[in-house]
């Protein structure tokens, strides 16, 4: 569905995107993560033909961006970060306008508007002006506008920023359903849990480069580091510490007062927990708490970029 090969973009002397490459199969849901200023929005703007790329190649549905851009755009729906609606028009009027911009006839746009309003759960607000909508409702109509021409590739740039939990959940379920019907999705977000829920594969961009790409499981197992066991005890002695450090699959043990941080190989935490309990009993150590933290995207992202996603 999409092939991006070594695409680059500079503004003046500052290079924003430094040779990013990735591809998507039809029906895939792909999460694009990166801290602010990493180059995410510029990358998706180039893919959608809104911003020309300086070098490299982009094809969407077999059409080359830059040569067959108009045909490629017919396959793409874009949900921008900012609301792209006319506030003094009704929801239906906005959808009609964007449908006609995509080349639909009046009859096609009218039929599709009704379908889209039902899809985003706002049929009863069809005749209300956008300026009367909540932030979450505006976001849902914003998505609806991108769906009017039944795109094969849906690009969503942080579609849930600043909205209420109910609208956020509705948007996530809508995206999930669209993907399950075969629509290819590129999804950027500052909410890690959204990407984990929606996306088959994930790409992490930092400073204009794609620094990691793969499934969540693959990325965490290859790059996310160890599983961490947090142990709180009533008292620690050297014999107990020596026994823990000697256990198979334990990579590191750090101690702070009555708390132990034990880093272990990710696939072996159940065996290590069993051994820990046995050693605590053997050394008469009273366990107050035990918590297992498996590799996750948040930790992976921090390890790779040195920043949290919202930095």
Automatic annotation (TrEMBL):
One Pfam family here:
ABC_tran
Tell me which residues make up the ABC transporter domain: 2-232
Q: Which domain of life is it from?
A: Bacteria
Q: Give the keywords, sorted.
A: ATP-binding, Nucleotide-binding
**Molecular function terms in GO for this entry?**
ATP binding; ATP hydrolysis activity
Name this protein carries in UniProt = Transposase
Organism this protein belongs to: Bacillus inaquosorum KCTC 13429
């Amino acid at each position: 569905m999409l092939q991006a090969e070594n695409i680059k973009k500079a503004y003046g002397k500052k290079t924003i995107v430094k040779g990013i490459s990735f591809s998507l199969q039809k029906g895939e849901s792909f999460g694009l993560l990166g801290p602010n200023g990493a180059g995410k929005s510029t990358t998706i703007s180039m893919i959608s033909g809104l911003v020309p790329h300086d070098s490299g190649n982009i094809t969407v549905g077999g059409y080359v961006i830059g040569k067959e851009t108009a045909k490629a755009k017919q396959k793409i729906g874009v949900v921008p970060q900012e609301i792209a609606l006319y506030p003094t028009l009704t929801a239906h009027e906005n959808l009609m306008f964007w449908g006609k911009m995509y080349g639909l006839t009046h009859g096609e746009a009218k039929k599709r508007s009704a379908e889209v309003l039902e899809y985003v759960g706002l049929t009863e607000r069809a005749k209300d002006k956008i300026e009367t909508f909540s932030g979450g409702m505006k976001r849902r109509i914003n998505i609806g506008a991108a769906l009017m021409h039944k795109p094969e590739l849906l690009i969503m740039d942080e579609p849930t920023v600043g909205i209420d939990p109910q609208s956020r959940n509705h948007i996530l379920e809508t995206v999930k359903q669209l993907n399950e019907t075969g629509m290819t999705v590129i999804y950027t977000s500052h909410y890690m849990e959204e990407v984990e829920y929606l996306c088959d594969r994930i790409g992490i961009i930092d400073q204009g480069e794609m620094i990691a790409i793969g499934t969540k499981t693959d990325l965490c197992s290859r790059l996310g580091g160890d599983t961490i066991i947090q142990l709180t005890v009533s008292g620690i002695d050297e014999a107990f510490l020596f026994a823990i450090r000697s256990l198979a699959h334990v990579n590191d043990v750090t101690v702070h007062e009555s708390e132990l941080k034990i880093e272990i190989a990710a696939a072996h935490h159940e065996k290590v927990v069993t051994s820990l309990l046995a050693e605590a009993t053997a050394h008469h150590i009273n366990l107050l708490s035990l918590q297992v933290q498996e590799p996750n995207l948040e930790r992976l992202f921090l390890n790779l970029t040195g920043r949290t996603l919202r930095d």
